[in-house]
């Protein structure tokens, strides 16, 4: 009798959730996240010598963002920001976690996958690079995702050097200590990658899994997250696209990612889901410029990955949602990856996480409503917790800090990395409306703007802290930790 009552209660619950999903006509959400793709790497953003017809079509049918900032310009931190709606330093994550890391995304943080489940019977999946902790408590299936197939961290975190020599303690001590590169299925090893042939098939593998997932879940709402491993070095591309681009291997890789987007869009069309699906395409940070012809383009923005200049932080972003996003629109309103979570919450009419977040809903931007956008300010943090710049509308104040620089140095070629240098920046004010390349310091011309932005920096330090000035911050939370 007790078992019968439990079964009846479960039936009532599942029926209620299903009815709630039908009544709300909940949209599907597809989030595609490239790795190290620069602002200038798509044709719709000015790329040359390659073709991106599927992403061009996505832009023509949706909205192209020209002022879209990542949470931080490096792998793990950027992913923490997009999945939780917070500055990653708020939740104790920075840099790029390696295979020896004992920390990860704290399970107490609410992810996009957990948020959508509050709206109804959502299915959730990630096919691609996770990079938020490779140990079991931190893996995607413990963080709201029903399915996971992909790499636990970056594709260069294996035993091979960038010139494809087996690492030794003398040639590359870190890589020599790394295990074989695993593809995980949930929390078990699906396959080990021991050579570039395995890397060449990653984009195809993720795409096939995404298409399968859409077909299997066409009758219920879903959240599909596809964080590609490419175009992070080492560059891998299938035979379908090798040699197809006039730009060389990097262009081939971009064209295969574009193909992947086309396969996903075709699957949505085939199952009659396109009109009720929000599709988002963006990148985790700007290009790794010292890899030369194996790196992307910042599209005229200054510097690249691992810097807080716009070349590191500003990325391409395209969104399509028929009936909500007007086709063929361009928005210059300031937005960020950390704004996706609260935007999804408003779309789905679910409460925000109980823990404090930093994003703001940009649903009004998606609808192309007139007037100023909801995001007015942005903090540029890097390293563990260093406040390197602040932004208010189109004014950006760069604060004194040590920085990587790629400028005036000859980059590497064909997979080999070139040099970078460390520089000490001074304080500088840039008007990004007139000077998106951050070349003309106008702090002496606009002292009142400098004063306001310094006040904003003080507010950021009080809240989140700042290693440069030695301020601890009042509202930081620890990452997940394995002792």
From TrEMBL:
Q: Where is the Sulfatase N-terminal domain?
A: 27-349
Answer yes or no on keyword Signal.
Answer: yes
* Segment forming the signal sequence: 1-19
Family annotation (Gene3D superfamilies): 3.30.1120.10, Alkaline Phosphatase, subunit A
- Keywords in alphabetical order, please: Hydrolase, Signal
Q: Which residues form a coiled coil?
A: none
PANTHER family to which the protein is assigned, alphabetical: ARYLSULFATASE FAMILY MEMBER (PTHR42693), ENDO-4-O-SULFATASE (PTHR42693:SF53)
As for family, the record states:
Belongs to the sulfatase family.
Q: What is this protein called?
A: Sulfatase
Which organism is this protein's natural source? Negadavirga shengliensis
Q: What is the lineage of its organism?
A: Bacteria, Pseudomonadati, Bacteroidota, Cytophagia, Cytophagales
């Amino acid at each position: 009798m007790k078992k019968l009552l439990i079964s009846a209660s479960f039936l009532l619950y599942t029926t209620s959730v299903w009815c709630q999903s039908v009544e709300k006509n909940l949209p599907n959400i597809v989030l595609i996240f490239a790795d190290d793709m620069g602002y200038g790497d798509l044709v719709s953003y000015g790329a040359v010598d390659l073709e991106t017809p599927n992403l061009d079509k996505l832009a023509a049918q949706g909205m192209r963002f020209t002022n879209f900032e990542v949470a931080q310009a490096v792998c793990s931190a950027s992913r923490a920001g997009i999945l939780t709606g917070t500055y990653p330093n708020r939740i104790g994550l920075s840099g790029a976690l390696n295979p020896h890391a004992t920390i990860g995304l704290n399970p107490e943080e609410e992810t996009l996958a957990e948020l959508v489940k509050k709206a109804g019977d959502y299915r959730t999946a990630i096919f691609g690079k996770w990079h938020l902790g490779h140990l079991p408590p931190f893996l995607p299936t413990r963080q709201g995702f029903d399915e996971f197939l992909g790499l636990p961290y970056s594709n260069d975190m294996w035993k091979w050097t960038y010139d494809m020599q087996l690492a030794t303690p003398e040639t590359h001590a870190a890589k020599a200590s790394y295990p074989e590169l695993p593809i995980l299925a949930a929390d078990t090893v699906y396959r080990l990658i021991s050579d570039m042939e395995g890397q060449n098939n990653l984009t195809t593998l993720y795409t096939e899994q995404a298409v399968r997932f859409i077909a299997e879940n066409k009758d219920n709402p879903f959240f599909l997250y596809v964080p590609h491993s490419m175009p992070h070095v080492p560059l891998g591309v299938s035979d379908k696209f090798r040699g197809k681009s006039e730009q060389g291997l990097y262009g081939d890789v971009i064209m295969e990612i574009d193909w992947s987007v086309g396969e996903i869009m075709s699957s949505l069309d085939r199952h009659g889901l396109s009109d009720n699906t929000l599709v988002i395409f963006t990148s985790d940070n700007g290009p790794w410029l010292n890899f030369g012809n194996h790196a992307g383009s910042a599209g005229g923005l200054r510097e690249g990955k691992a810097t807080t200049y716009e070349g590191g932080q500003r990325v391409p972003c395209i969104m399509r949602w028929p009936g909500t996003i007007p086709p063929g629109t361009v928005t210059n309103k300031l937005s960020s990856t950390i704004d996706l979570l609260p935007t999804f919450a408003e779309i789905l009419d679910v409460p925000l996480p109980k823990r404090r977040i930093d994003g703001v809903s940009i649903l009004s931007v998606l609808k192309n409503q007139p007037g100023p956008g909801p995001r007015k300010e942005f903090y540029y943090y890097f390293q563990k917790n260093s406040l390197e710049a602040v932004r208010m509308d189109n004014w950006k104040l760069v604060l004194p800090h040590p920085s990587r620089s790629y400028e005036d140095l000859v980059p590497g070629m064909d997979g080999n990395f070139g040099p970078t240098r460390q520089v000490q920046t001074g304080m500088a004010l840039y008007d990004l409306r007139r000077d998106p390349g951050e070349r003309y310091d106008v702090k002496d011309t606009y002292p009142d703007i400098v004063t306001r932005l310094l006040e904003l920096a003080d507010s950021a330090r009080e809240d989140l802290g700042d290693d440069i000035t030695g301020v601890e911050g009042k509202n930081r939370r620890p990452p997940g930790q394995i002792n």
